[in-house]
Amino acid sequence: MELIAIMLPIISVLVSLYFITLGLWELREGVDRNQYIRYMFTGLFLLVILTPMLWLFGSSFMVNI
Hints:
It is a single chain. By secondary structure, the chain is mainly α. Helices cover 92% and strands 0% of the residues. α1 (2-29) runs antiparallel to α2 (33-64). The termini are close together.
């Protein structure tokens, strides 16, 4: 269970960087602007909002155990 609390934020950072990279690639090709916005918003949401929440709630969860 301790491993999950450590691995979830790391996995969310990797997935968010993947989405940001996909968004930049879509911007480079310049085919679909809505797809670029969707990828960037998803990646930045995961990176800026979800990852700190996982660190915060994961650390408080580990204190309770």
